[in-house]
Structure formats: structure tokens, C-alpha cells
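Give me the fold.
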Amino acid sequence: MTDPSNMTVMITGASSGFGEACARRFAAAGARLVLLARRIDRLEKLKGGLPVPVYVAKLDVRNRQDAENFVSTLPAEFSEIDVLINNAGLSLGLEPAYETNLDDWETMVDTNIKGLMSFTR
């Protein structure tokens, strides 16, 4: 198994919840981190409390072009990604299906499915 202190871990949706918890866990193991989310202010705050090199960027995985181009914009020391935690996601339209706004469902599909696919690629 690879030593986490020699790894770079990229986490989408890192500004809260599971993504933030993963960032803290990998930081404790010594991994370099690339943290992405729509809320850059939260990422900056998280970065300030981590004892490892961290690169943060505002990114919405629904923007396919940004997702596809992102890795090529990374500084050299963060450009070799060993682990991707594709965590970005959201939940909308939780009322009964017949009352749901279809725009909410489309936003979820764009984020939770299409965003995951394009960012993984």
C-alpha cells in the first residue's frame, strides 16, 4: 500500500461534510491535498487549519469544460494525482415526485451524475 505522505489526494465537494472529513483524515496521514468546491471561502478556512501542503480552487463540477481543464492548471507540485475522492453532490426536490420541480432534479443529475463522470474522466 502507498504511504499517504507520498500521495496527492484531490477531493471535490471538500468545503463541508464528508469531503471536509476526508481532507482532515488524509492531512493527518500527511498527504498533499487538492481541495475543490463552489465555496472558496470555506476551502480557504479549511486550508488554514491543515498541517500539509494544500491547493484550493473554486470549481463547480457541473461546468464540464472547467472540470475537463482543471488538472492542466495545477501547479507542478500538485499535478500528479494519486487519489480522487469525487464527493461533490447535492440533494434537491425531496417532496413527493408529483410535486417536484423538475429543475431540481436536473440540477441533481448535472451535479451528482454528469459532474462525477466528467470530473473522473
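Residues 11 and 29 are 15 Å apart (CA to CA).
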